Every structure is written in C-alpha cells, then in structure tokens.
Amino acid sequence: MKHLSILLFLVVCCVLPSAAQSYIIKGSVTDTLNNNKLSMASVVLIRTADSVIAAHGRTGNDGRFEVRVKQQGKYFLRIAFPGFAEHIDEVDVKKSTTDLGDLPMISREYLLKEFVLTQQVAAIKIKGDTTEYMADSFKVKEGATVEDLLKRLPGIQVDKNGQIVAQGEAVQKVLVDGEEFFSDDPKVVTRGLQADAVKKVQVYDKKSDQADFTGIDDGEKTRTINLELKEDKKKGYFGKLEAGAGTDGYFQEQAMANAFKAKRQFSVFGIASNTDKAGLGWEDSDKFGNGSGTTEITEDGDFINRFTPDEFSGWDGRYNGEGLPQTWTGGTHYANKWNSGEHHLSANYRYGKQKVNIDGNTDVQYSMPNDSIRVTETHKEQSSSSDRHGFDVMYEWKIDTATSVKITSNAGVKATETRSEYSTDNYFKIKDAPGANLNNLRQITGDGNAQFINTDLILRHRFPKKGRTLAIDAKENYSENTNTGTLFSVISDTFALTPDLVTRQRKDNYSSSLAFSGKATYTEPLSKTVFTEVNYGITVNNSTARNLSFDTLATGQYSDVPNTTFSNDFTYNILSNAGGLSFKFMYKTYNFSFGSDVSRADYVQTDRTNTNNTTTYHFTNLFPRANFTYRFGKQTSFNFNYRGNTKQPTITQMQPFLQNTDPLNITIGNPDLRQEFVNEFNMRFNDYKILQSRFLWASASFSTTSNAISTEQSNDSGINKTRYINVDGNYSGYAFIGYGFKVPKTDLSIGGRLNGSTYHINNIINRQQNSSNTNSISLAPYVSYTKDNKFDIRWEPQIAYNVNTSTNNPVDVTYYIFTNELSGSVQLPKKIEIGSSVDMMFRQKTPIFTTNNNVIKWNAYVTKKFLKKSQLELRASVYDILNQNLGFSRIGQGNMVTQNSYNTIRRYGMLSLIWNFTHTPVGAPPAQDGGTMIIK
C-alpha cells in the first residue's frame, strides 16, 4: 500500500497541469420522411444563461455539422431549413466532444397533412445509442406514476411485479437526472414519482466508467432508464402520500417527498405494508457474501438469477410472493453539483425490515437411471425476519477538464432470524413399482449477522493528445458473516426396516473476506480510427470459512468438541496478477474492438482442523473479449458481443466436508475442483420507424462452459448424496424478438414477443453419465387501445411450452402454460374512474404433478379525484375477487423438476387516500403544454 500511495501521489503531481480546450458539438440532420441528408441547414448554439449566440455554422453535403464552444454548460440548439419545421433542443456540454447523433426533421407540408401536433416535440428521438421518449407526447391519466408512463412507451414492458424490460432486456438501473436514486429498488422510483414531473425518458446501455472515460468499449453495459425532470420540478418540491386500510387487517402506507433546486436533489421515502405492493429489492445480497446464486428457467421461458442463502445464514430479505409479508422500508437520497459541475456528491441511505410467514409444500421429481424416478414431498412452515441498513456515497472532483478523482463507497449491516420446520417424504418409483420410502422431520433455527464495506478510488487523466488517457483504480472489499443455529432431525423408514436416525446439533458458522486491489489502465491512439488499451492489476484476497457442528451429550448439553464429520475450518489466501491488451477500430458506420486479459491466481488453502495442512493451487485465467457494432441507418443497428472468462470454485464447493442441514440430501465439497471457462455470445438488433411508431427488437445469447462445476449424485438407502465435480458440454441459450406498431389514423397498437430458451446440463447419477435438457418457447401477442386518455384497454395472452428430458430416464416432463392478461379503465364524469384486470393462468398437469393449479385472479377499483388539479384521490379496490390466487411455481433444471405451492395473499378490499402534492416557487418556469410546431 505504501508504494501504491507514492504512485498515486506522483501521478496526481504529473497530471494536474492542463491546457485550455474547446468543446465540440456535432451531429447530422436528416429528412426523416425521405431519408435524405439536409445540406446547408443553419445550426445555432445559444447560451441558456444569457441568450447569447455561442456558435453557429451550417451542415455539409452529407448533412453533418460540427461547431465549437469555449465553455461547458447548457445551450439551446436551433436548426432551421427552408420548408421544414424547426428543430430546437437543449444540449448539456460536459465532455470534450458531444455527439448528438441524427437529428430528424420533417417538412411542414407533410406535418400539416398527416398530423395535428400540439406538443413542442415529437414523441421519440434517437441520439446515438440512446432512445429518448418525450413524456408529454404519451398521454397518461391525472395522478399517474412513472410506471404508468413506462407502460405507454413503445418497446418497454412493465410486468405486474414492476420489473421493467426495455427493448428485450431487463432494466437494471433507473436514474433521475442521471443520479442513482436510492440505488436499491427501481420500483421506489417508478411507483413513487409522478409521471407529470418527467420531461424525457431515456433508454440506453450505460457503459462502464472506464469505457465512458476512454471511449474504448469494454463490452460491460447495463440497461438503464434515466428520467429527466421538467425544469419547474427542479425548483420546488413535490411528492406523494398514500394511506390505505383494508379488510382482514391489510394495510398499505407510502410517502415520498422530493425537494430539488438546480443541481441539488433531496428525497425521502417510507413504506409500511403487508400487501404485495411493496417489497425490498436489495441489491446487496452478493455483497454480504453468503449463499450462492443459481440460474433457472421460469415457466414462461425466461432465465432468472435466484439467490439461495445457506439455511443457517438466515433469510435473504426478499419477497417474491411466497408467504404473508410485513414490510417497513425507507431511505433518503441527496445529490448536488457545484462550481459548474467541478464537484459532484451523491449519497443514499436505506433501511428495511421485513417479516414473512410461509406455509407451503415443495415437490421435486428427479429422473434416475433404469427407468426410475425419485420424488421428495416436503411440507414447510417457516417464519423469517430481516433487518438491514445500507449506505452508499460517491464524490467526484474534476480538478480540471483533463483530470478527475472519484471515490465511491458502500456499506451495509443486516440481522436475520429464521425458524423452520420440515416434514419430508422421500420415495422411489422403479418402473411404477414402489421403492425405498423415508420420512424426515427436522427443525432448524438460524440467527445471523453480516456486514460489508467496499471502497473504490479512481484517478483519471486525459493527455492533450486525443485518445491518450491514464486511469489508476484502487479498491477495498470486506465482508463478514456470523451465523448460529440448531438442527434437530429424525429420519425414519416407513417400512420399519431400520431404526430411526436422530440428529441434534448446534451450528456455528463464520466467514470473512478482505481484498485489496490496484489497477492501472493506459490508452493510446494509433491513428484517428484505431486505439489500443493496456492494463495491469494486482489483487490480494484473504478469506476464512468456518463451519462447526456440535453434537448433544447425554446431559442434554452441546459438546464443546466439534463433530469432525460435519465440521471444517479453512483459510484461503489468494494473490492474483493480471494484465491485458485490447484494440478498438472506430469508423462512421461501425466500430469493432477485441482484446484479452490474462491473470495468474495463486491459492494457499490451510485446513486448520487438520494440523494446519496446507494445499496450494495455481490458476491461469483468460478473459478474451470482442465487440462489433454496425449502424445500417440512424434508427437501425446491430451489435455482437463476445466475452470469455474463467470462474473459480467457491469455498463451499471446495471444502471437503459433509453438509447435513438436509439429512436426506447430503452435500460434499471437492478440493480437486478445477476452474470453469465460459464463452458468452450476445447479439442484438434494433430497428425504429419513428413516424410510423413501429419498432423491432431482437436479441440472442448463447454460452458454453468447459470444466463446468456440476454434480455427482448417488443414493444409498434413500439418502441422496451430492458431490461437486467438473464436466464438459454444458450450455445455455436464449432468444427474443419483439415487434409492435400503431395502426395508422387510430389509437390502436398491436405487437408481441417471441421467447425461446434452452438449458443443457451434464452430470453423473448413480455412477452413470446423464444429460438433461430444459427447453421452452413462448409467444405473447398484445393489443392496446387508448382513446383520448379516457378509455384504455390492453389484452396480452401468452402460451409457453416446456420440455424437460433426461438421457437416463425415458419419462419426459412436458407441459404447457397458458396465461391471459386483460386490463382496462374508463374515465367517467365527475372525475370518477373505474378499472379492472383479469389474470388467468392454466397449467397442464404432469404424470407426477397431478393437482389442479389453474388460477383466475380478478382485481377491480374505483377512484374519485378531488381538487382543481385532481391532486387528491380516494380509491376503493378489491384484490382477488374470486379468491383463487394460488401460491404456485414450477421450474425445470437439470434432471429435476420442482413444484412449489405456498400460502400467499388472498382476497381483500382496500380503501386508500392518495395525495399528490407539488409546489413551484414564484418565478419558476411552468411546464410546457403546447407551442409552435417544432420537430425534434
């Protein structure tokens, strides 16, 4: 660390001086109707602060323009061409080069003939890789939330759980004026902010900080939505209060307040609820460092990443519809910029407490060799609680136009309590004949505490030569978990062939990890179109994993000596050195980049329960990557991305001890595991036709894994033992295509999406090789009709077909899922609105899962709005009118199909009072509701 500090100091001293520079604003102007470039169009930049012309010019023969200004800041861009409606936009100049992409214009004659335009701007604009929706062009009802607005935007879907998919990809971040907003749960933003506060909705793939700084694409992108607020909302306060009381003790309270002033943001929110309208979307599960993540395929063919905590680490704090929840969550957000953006500070605090009581059943069907099937049927009763605090802060100092320092830090603490009781029947069917049958009764308690803190310091500098940059990144990552619990288990043979096996143990588990890393990245232009990037980094990671089990003595007390069969205590010290080289080619219509990192990781594993026995491992890791983007036109593009990476086994997978938290399913680690190598291929195609409101998006991904970490399963007298092994040939794939358009001269929109997925796993079952396949395809058309924002109806049926096969068993698990979602609302006189939604789900039975799990969930509401601008709303709603909501899910993976049924929220009524308040100080500019014909 001493040498790293000296290096940072020397770099700061070398790069502080910087020469003044001008700022370039460029783009192109196109006749969108005829797709012709407009030459000699007038381009003027006007400073917003004093309305002084800062720069002017004209487009060339190719329709392109380039003007320069001397200062950062906001400018009005005005483009004029004879016979065309003027284009006016606000440009925020922050970087040395601001590329506005294609700026569409339309002739006045065509505009008057085909459209009655009352807004200042057109509905959609393409700026490079960003799709920009003008919020006021998409009418929503008074008091609508941002979520209601997003549902109106072409190419964006919001499901009933508030998850957002934009152009075929899940949205991972929702920003407000470019700022992280509470950072952990996008639904807090989309359901808390009012739609009428939003000026623009921008959808784009957010590049990594390093790629954004250097301009060299590293392939790391995050699908992001940015909500740009209206100017009047930035000079006052606004918010939402909701109080709701329902039948059977249901309640739902929510509050959000926002006070913005220029660049300063301050917001608070709070939620208290025992309905499914509020949940905790914590993103910190992996940061706490316990449990593991798995990829599964849902009934409708989508991939999901599911976080699976260890039984004794405590519940993970999420609510996904399973059980009856009680939620209390809140937070504060602060952000500010000052000295013309030289200093930038952002901070978020979140608190969350949630309790869930679950009463459910889990049935699992395993395909086994010799035409046999193993089935486990488990009844679970569980009460869980989680209490969490989280904090993150970011500070950036732009020392000058070429040098900046950025520091980010996030930290969290949590406490969990879990009490569970299980009753499991485990039996075989061999060619329809019954086999061994075991029953397991077990009680598990777990109390956990965890904390983490991560810090990242980045120093960046741009040299006078364009494309030459240097970045130094220093990181610290720390996590710690402590969990104590008890296990009581009784295994009995239904045929009374063996005596009962009784286990009483206390569990003490502890894990920690502390890592320091440093990385330097240098970029150099080889020509005007070719750039190269070189990097080197070093990481030191020291971790501990201790899992101790203590048996019960004859006195009833727990022993002080651990049970060696079910205990271990390991330390891992890892030293990693990595370097990389990549190239990028940038041209007018396409860019291409490729390169690779290579690293050497040295592991030292010490078994402290076995006289400090030490084992060393050496891994050479390769991280190749390539990215290609081609633009057929300003509204049509194709992207291909490849990434290769290695993945080391986790500590849990390598520790050679038996995990007996589920005595009928014993897990064994394997210290001889090798690292995985994963090849990931992703493709995406986008095509827009703005004036026709037509969109087409398609994406596909495919990955293969060499030395995949899989399992070897064996069954001895009904007890299943699983050992981690390496296999080849695992792969997965996913494809999506979405299409939609608005029927000309109507308020009718039609579209749909087609999904397909495949998942192939190799493993070993009872000493025989096995290959399992999970395939799914789904089709979901939709029809939407909106009339003057007074009548709205949407119909979206979907059918999904699932096939699960296993080479060691001829019995295929094949079934279909049919869903039908119909929703609508109508505005009546006296500010009254009624609405209803019907969600129908029909699942095909299987030879094993023969129960009827068809559901028709019908919701309805009626609202009455008050006050001049309808800020006050009284809402009466009924949830699950037919009382048919069933907690149910079915997932296929590998050689098993899992079906869950559980208690969940059933029919209730709710009476709510909602107040949307806003205050704009005297002199603040009002929101624009109309104006001259200007096309953007």
From TrEMBL:
The keyword Signal applies. Keywords: Receptor, Signal. It comes from the Bacteria. This is TonB-dependent receptor. It holds the Pfam family OMP_b-brl_3. The keyword GTP-binding does not apply. Residues 1-20 form the signal peptide. Residues 461-913 form the Outer membrane protein beta-barrel domain. It comes from Nemorincola caseinilytica.
